[in-house]
Amino acid sequence: MNGADVLCDVLLANDVNVCFANPGTSEMHFVAALDRKPEMRCVLGLFEGVVTGAADGYARMTDRPAATLLHTGPGLANGLANIHNARRARVPMINIVGDHASYHLPLDAPLTSDIETLAAPMSNWVRRISGPADVAPSAQAAVRASLTPPGIATLILPADAAWGGAGPVPSARAVPAPPPAFDMDVVRKIAEAVRASHGRVGMVLRGRAARQDALEIAGRISAALDVRLFSEVLVARMQRGRGRVAPTRIPYPIDAARALLADIDVLILVGAKEPVAFFAYPGKPGRLVCEGCEVMTLAEHGEDLEAALAALGDELGVKPLQPVSVATAFPDEPAPRGTLTDDAIAVSVARKLPENAIVCDEAVTSARRYFALSAFAAPHDYMMGTGGSIGGGIPMAIGAAIACPGRKVINLEADGSGMYTVQGLWTQAREKLDVVTIVFSNRTYAILHAEMRNVGVNAIGENARRMLDLDQPILDWVSLANGMGLEAARADTCERFEALLDSALSRPGPFLIEAMV
Amino acid sequence: MNGADVLCDVLLANDVNVCFANPGTSEMHFVAALDRKPEMRCVLGLFEGVVTGAADGYARMTDRPAATLLHTGPGLANGLANIHNARRARVPMINIVGDHASYHLPLDAPLTSDIETLAAPMSNWVRRISGPADVAPSAQAAVRASLTPPGIATLILPADAAWGGAGPVPSARAVPAPPPAFDMDVVRKIAEAVRASHGRVGMVLRGRAARQDALEIAGRISAALDVRLFSEVLVARMQRGRGRVAPTRIPYPIDAARALLADIDVLILVGAKEPVAFFAYPGKPGRLVCEGCEVMTLAEHGEDLEAALAALGDELGVKPLQPVSVATAFPDEPAPRGTLTDDAIAVSVARKLPENAIVCDEAVTSARRYFALSAFAAPHDYMMGTGGSIGGGIPMAIGAAIACPGRKVINLEADGSGMYTVQGLWTQAREKLDVVTIVFSNRTYAILHAEMRNVGVNAIGENARRMLDLDQPILDWVSLANGMGLEAARADTCERFEALLDSALSRPGPFLIEAMV
């Protein structure tokens, strides 16, 4: 049994049975090994950013790692931006990066590069397999690292470790490090602070604390003690919809975020980090809480966030049957009609969302209204790119669809962002994934126009316009999708958009709606 | 004057007047500064691999750096694969990577990453601007670094250095380090070796040694002393065509390469590295020269290669008017007819190539015949991706077209490779570049099928097939091109291909031919 087979077997023994791949020559033995394991689902991406973004989406929905297969340093480099997003989402992932045979590296062949150094900034764990006998222990360690938060594990597989004889596969499964226990002293201190600052307390929920059961505990605390609930500006994953507790998302613009948090004296972090400005601006603060606000961490990512919330509830005397405030009926507003707008799309999607759908939101400025409306939609999972690196949406939808067959995935996608990993549409078509992609075609990097105004430039000239606008020529998303084998259609009225959405939701398989806004 | 203005002015003062850009928020002050400099040509890429690949193509044709503008660590990461290619081509390039304001970094906002570490493996020089006053010296140093081989310079521009007051622009131009002189003792030793091993000497020419005048000197040495002339397997740039000395390209397959070099006892490197196998295979050697072959370096990249060749010619008593052997008439073979094939395309392109064209070859396995035929084509420049990272072809054509207005650029592109940076077609359309892209649509990663056979796998199963083939669904390149505003048409016969090629060559502006092979 060669090293490549051992690596596959260790992955499969640990239920890592999806491999998003863009292989090259140095990975041919690993590809041959995968070929001998039909129980491994291999999903080809035509660009590595698709591969890593899909692994991110998969992990968000399963809390389990997928493997990625990347070709040497440049292949890893192409995948790094979405590994960055995954790292910021704090999901598990096992990147397998093929490299030259160890004895070939000193020859400095064209594809040689320093893979360890490239991997380090976006990985929590990096290891180079030292030889065939090291494949099994390294693979076990990679699985363990991926399951021990934070979980981005990058494993470098030299070709000669893959093709060398590697002995038997260990029978034991990799055991992740046990999660650290949250601290009861901290719980008591926070309970005291909540009581002392009644009505001026906020709580930021993320990760496992943004799932239905944890949200419900937080919702009871909120109802009983007037604690305001927030999500981070970029939502890794949150369970939303009717009947669920609905935190308010901290806005992206600094002034709006600071206004929201202006009367919060105690901010409790549950798996979250202290909210900070996305970017710095001259003369504006980077922290978003008000002067003197006490920021307290109830529990960190990797700890049992739901148990920590329950402990806080107990400490505060919140009863398990305490009523919670949840969204119920959809806001009473007329159905959108006429010219299509960003907000009309948000309303239509929220209204028509099927039960148990998954929404991948990379519409940047365009779907701003969606998150608030999602509280009134059918229960669903909601997620965004979390590292600020655009190009995560189309791949994330791939991963979510593969993770959750039978659930409809809706990808709210900006045209600017979508182009970074547009190749993912082909994978959606090939795998017949149940993804409806809605491209908000506004023919511009709208966020950058806003940011130009933020830096004080109101009238822009030719050079700036040509760097911020996507017109000349206009992207035709129907042609792009068709070119990758994906059915698609265009809408420029609300009526047409709703008809296309109804049709796409009524049948399985991928579809793209180009929404002209 | 703020730092961003100073940076632009230093670039412009040093004739760096093309900026390939994919900006984000942290670069808005730099974008505003570029907007005030209409003499800077700003070219938007919809993905960073387009941006860096274009800068590579520009530098190959001008021997001068373009600037790239990239957004924080993930933006740089997306551009690294083509920076890797550029580094292997040893061209000058100035990457400007925007980052958060320095005081914002400790807050670890979502887009924060370790840019220095990401940049290091693919850069020859990395510097972070320390503040507004450091912009001018850093920019000067970056220009100098880019012009002092090897020349990949990466300059990190924190937002507060861009927006801070930065004083006047230095009037002096950046002066690159003087090129090291080649060593006359080495020249004499090599001359001795050439005489001693008459008929068993080879010479590998690259970089400036692969331009017409240097090739001619090498050709005279070759004719006078029976020295065989080679190019590296991946050609950074070579002047080819009728009337020019035509080195033989060292083949990619190890066995063929070793056979070519089997009777070479002395191999002289002129700006080149010793040829090695692209990848390692079990039981095959990594070096390509025969046992006992003496490898001697006449001059290294960065030295005056043409002068070194001239000195060697003098030392060997080769006369300036010694006849050289050059290709003249096109090989006598019938024009291709009927079903379109890879080789038929190579023949048609070589036959019809306009004078002074630029050929960017990223067709991987498909255009194998082209290089040999290019010796008989009209005089032109030929270049390939040099780092083995695919996705360089479409962007390289952009850079070449911007570098050389009035010259036709022909991009021989594989379908697999083309998808990595397919977004570049949009930039070709927007800039109305004189590029004819020929996509060899074979619906497979043909090279990987060959490599599977190389590792001993002849019958492949479902998992491997799905990782190596691009069918299901088939990519429709005409739709993809049209979706990005580019005219395109499909050919599946030689006649149709030639008609499309004639038409595309007869008028300016971009066109894509999907060649079904």
UniProtKB/TrEMBL annotation, chains A, B:
UniProt keyword Ligase present: no
UniProt entry keywords in alphabetical sequence: Thiamine pyrophosphate
Pfam families documented for this protein: TPP_enzyme_C, TPP_enzyme_N
Record bears the keyword GTP-binding: no
Domain Thiamine pyrophosphate enzyme TPP-binding stretches: 375-514
Domain Thiamine pyrophosphate enzyme N-terminal TPP-binding: 1-106
Annotated family: Belongs to the TPP enzyme family.
NCBIfam families xrefs: PRK07586.1
Name listed for the protein in its UniProt record: Acetolactate synthase large subunit
Organism of origin: Mesorhizobium dulcispinae
Classification lineage: Bacteria, Pseudomonadati, Pseudomonadota, Alphaproteobacteria, Hyphomicrobiales
